[in-house]
Amino acid sequence: MNAVWVAGRDLSTRWKAATIIVAVVFAMVLLGLAIYKTLDLTIYDSLPDALRELLGVPMGASAQVLAYNEMLAVMGGLSVAGLAVAIGADVVAGEERSRRLSFVLSHPVSRLQAVLAKAAVLLLVLALTTLALWGTSELAAVILGVDIGEAQLGALCLALGANALFYGSLAFGIGAATGNKALAGAVAAGVLVLSWLSAGLLPLWPEYADYAETMPWFWYTDQQALVSGIDAGYLSLHLGFSALFLAVGVVAFPLRDLKSIPPRALLRRFTRTRTASTLFGVTFGRSLTLLVVITALMGLLMGLSMGPVYEAMAPALASMMETLPPEMMVMFGAGDMSTPEGFYWGQTMGMMAPAAVITMVAVAAAGLAAEERSGRLGLLLSASVPRAKALAATAATMVLYSAIVTLATALGIWGGSAMADMGLEPANIFGAAAHLFGLSLLVGGVALLVAAATGSSAAATWTAVGIGVVGHFANAMLVLSEDTEGAARFSPFHYYASAEPLEFGVDWGHVAILAAVGAVAIALAFPAFQRRDLRV
Predict the structure, then answer these.
(1) How far apart are CA 63 and CA 75, in angstroms?
(2) Alpha-carbon gap, residue 518 to 512, rounded angstroms
C-alpha cells in the first residue's frame, strides 16, 4: 500500500457526488438556455450599472449569457463549493473518525504521505469537476444550436473552481489540524454562506460596500469571468489562501495525536444505549456543533438582524425594485423586496432557510449510512438493539433538527420585525415556518429512505441536495414561461413558496402535501432498512 493507492481509493468514493453535480448543472443549463430564448430580455438593460456589474449582466446581454450566469455561475458555483466543503471536511477528519485512516496508517504509509494524498484528492476532484462543467456547458450550446458568442465559459469554470477550492481547503485545513469533521464542515460552510450573502448585500448598502471586497465570494463574482475573463488578482487571492489552508493541514496533521476509539470501547458504549432515549441522545449529539452554528446563523443573522437591515435599506430598496425585472427576483426566490414580507422572504425564507433545514436533515439521514459504513452500526445491532429502533432514533433526530432550525428562524424573523417595527403578522411568520418544516420533512424523508435502502451516505446527502437545488431552480425557471408553468407543480418548492405564506398566511393544503410525502418516505424506510443486508 502506498500514497498513490490511498489517493486512488479516495477518488473511487468521491466521483459519484461530483458526477451528480455535473449532471444536474448540465440539465439546468439546458433548461435555462431553452427558457431564456423565449423571454424579452430588454428589461435587464434598465438595471442600474452597479447592479448589472454585481450580477455579471452586461448591457445588451444575450439569453445565453444570462442563462450561463444564473445556472452555471450561481447554481454551479454554490454546488461545487458545497462539494468542496464536504470533501475537505471528510477526507481527513471524517476518515479519522471512522477509523479508516488508522487502518491506512497501519500499513507502510507515513502520515505525511497520507495527508498529501488526501490533499491531492481534493484538488483532483475539483479539477475534474470544473473541466466536466466546462465541457458539458459547451455541449449544451451545441445540443440546442445556440451561439454563445463571446461568453468565456472556460474562464468562468476556472474562477468557479478556484472559488470552490478556497472553501474546500479551509475545511481540509481545519479537519486535518483538529480531527473534528463537524467543526471543519461548519466553519467552512459558515464562511461560504456569509461570504455569499455579504457579496450580494453589502454592495447595495453604500456605507458598507467596500467591505464586500474582503469576501471570497465577491472575488469570484466581481471579476465577471463569463464576459470579461479571468482577473489575475482575484485568482491569486483564491489560490494563495487555498495553498495556505492546505499547507496548514499538511503540516499540522503529522504533529498531533489521532482520535480513535477502540472497538471494545465502542461496544461497551453501544451496549449501554439499549433504551430509545439514550440511543436518541447519541444520535442527536452526532452533529450538535453543526446544529448550533446553523441555528445561530438563521435565528440571529438571517432572522433578528435582518429587521434593522431592512430599516436602514428601505429607501434604497424601494428605488431598486423600480428597475429590477421580476424574472430575476423569482430566480433567487424573492419578490418585491421593498415590502417587509418581500424582504424577509427574499433574504431569509426564499433560499437560505430551505438550505439550512435541508443541510440538517441531510446530515441526519446520511448519519445512519455513515454509521453502517464505519462498522459502528454493526456493533450497535450486536448489542441486541433492533434495527427499527436505530432507524427511529435517526428519524426523530432528523425531525428535531429541522424543527429547531425552523423555530429559530421564525423567532428571529418575529424579533427582527418587532425591532424595526415592520409589522409582520406573527401568524404569517409561523405559517411560513410550517411550510418550511413541511419542505424539510419531504426532503429529509426521501433522503432517509435512500440511506436506509442503499447504506450510502453520499447517495442520501446528494439526494437531499438534488431535491433542494433542482427543485428550487426548476420551479423558478418553469414559472417564467407560460408553456412550462404547469410543470412547476412537480417541484416541492411550488408547495413551499407559491402561496406566499409570509404575506398571505399558511396554505394548509400545501403543507399537508409536503408532510404527507415525507411521512410516506419515512414509513417506507423501515421495511427497506429491515430487509437489506447491512455492510460489515
Answers:
(1) 17
(2) 10
Taking the C-alpha atoms of residue 127 and residue 235, their distance in angstroms, rounded to an integer, is: 15
pLDDT at 483: 66
Secondary element (H or E) of residue 382: helix 376-382
Answer whether residue 292 shows pLDDT above 50.
yes
Question: Is the pLDDT score of 463 beyond 50?
Answer: yes
d(CA 372, CA 456): 9
Average pLDDT over residues 386-399: 89
- What does 16-39 look like in DSSP terms, one character per residue? HHHHHHHHHHHHHHHHHHHHHTTS
- Report the distance separating Cα 267 and Cα 270, nearest Å: 5
Q: What is the pLDDT of residues 329-374, one digit of tens each?
A: 555 555 667 788 888 888 788 888 898 899 889 888 988 887 777 6
User: What 3 state SS string does 160-173 have?
Assistant: HHHHHHHHHHHHHH
Residues 507, 500: Cα–Cα separation, whole Å: 9
Whole-number Å distance between alpha carbons of 22 and 80 = 9
**Three-class DSSP labels, 313-341:** HHHHHHHHHCCCCHHHHHHCCCCCCCCHH
Amino acid identity at 237: L
Q: What single DSSP character describes residue 491? A: S
What confidence tens digit (pLDDT) does each residue in 214-253 have?
899 989 988 888 878 898 999 999 999 999 999 999 998 8
| Range in 66-70, 154-158, 391-395 the model is least confident about | 66-70
Q: HSE (CB half, 13 Å, CA atoms) of 157?
A: 20
CA–CA distance, 389 with 357 (Å, rounded to integer):
24
pLDDT (average), residues 170-174: 93
pLDDT at res. 374: 65
Confidence of residue 401 (pLDDT cuts 50, 70, 90): very high
CB atoms within 10 A of CB 108: 8
Hey, what's the cell of 421? 417595527
**Nine cell digits for residue 208:** 458598507
Rg of the chain taking only CA atoms, in angstroms: 23
Residues in the chain, overall count: 536
Say what the pLDDT of residue 503 is.
87
Q: Is 386 exposed, middle or buried (0-12, 13-18, 19+ CB in 10 A)?
A: exposed
pTM over 0.85? The answer is no
| Contact between residue 179 and residue 95 where contact means Cβ atoms under 8 Å apart | no
> Which residue has better confidence, 146 or 78?
78
Residues 6+ apart with CB under 8 A from 200: 54
Q: Is 122 exposed, middle or buried (0-12, 13-18, 19+ CB in 10 A)?
A: buried
Question: Cα(337)–Cα(343) distance, rounded to whole angstroms?
Answer: 4
Separation of CA 101 from chain center: 26
- Pseudo-torsion of CA 523, 524, 529, 530, nearest 10°? 80
Cα-Cα-Cα-Cα dihedral sign, residues 534, 21, 492, 489 = negative
Question: Average per-residue pLDDT in the chain?
Answer: 80
Q: Are 299 and 409 in contact (CB under 8 A)?
A: yes
